[in-house]
Write a structure and sequence with these properties.
Elements: E1 2-4, H1 15-19, E2 25-27, E3 32-34, E4 54-56, H2 63-73, H3 89-92
Antiparallel strand pairs: 1-4, 2-3
Bound molecules: iron/sulfur cluster and FE3-S4 cluster.
Residues 4, 8, 11-16, 32, 49, 51, 53-54 line the site of FE3-S4 cluster.
Biased composition (Basic and acidic residues): 86-96
Region (Disordered): 86-104
Cofactor: [3Fe-4S] cluster; [4Fe-4S] cluster
């Protein structure tokens, strides 16, 4: 599966959702997640993210993010259409350790 990681937080560009063939993105207030059981590993979303926040779970060190994607995918609503990024997306792009700002 692919996972959404740190740099999506407070940016939420949503370019990723418009290309997903199986609509497996779920939306929180300032972050999106991928449902790991629904993702078919096609990889098309990865290059679409301007914040480079989407990674394959084969990359090392992503266990925490995989768990977080799986947990929130169960409770957040599905999102299938692109929308405007969060207003301060540009300012937050690249800020380190954004997990502390994640709205549950
Ligand atoms: Fe959707 Fe493909 Fe991205 Fe998985 S890898 S979330 S199926 S676009
Ligand atoms: Fe987030 Fe990137 Fe999608 S910032 S909403 S993973 S396009």
């Amino acid at each position: 599966t692919y996972v959404v990681t740190d740099n999506c937080i407070k940016c939420k560009y949503t370019d990723c959702v418009s290309v997903c063939p199986v609509d497996c993105f779920y939306e929180g207030e300032n972050f999106l997640v991928i449902h790991p059981d629904e993702c078919i590993d096609c990889g098309v979303c990865e290059p679409e993210c301007p914040a480079e926040a989407i990674k394959p779970d084969t990359e090392p060190g992503l266990d925490k993010w995989l768990t977080l994607n799986a947990d929130y995918a169960k409770v957040w609503p599905n999102i299938t259409d692109r929308k405007d990024p969060l207003p301060e997306a540009k300012e937050w792009d690249g800020v380190p350790d954004k997990l502390q700002y994640l709205s549950p």
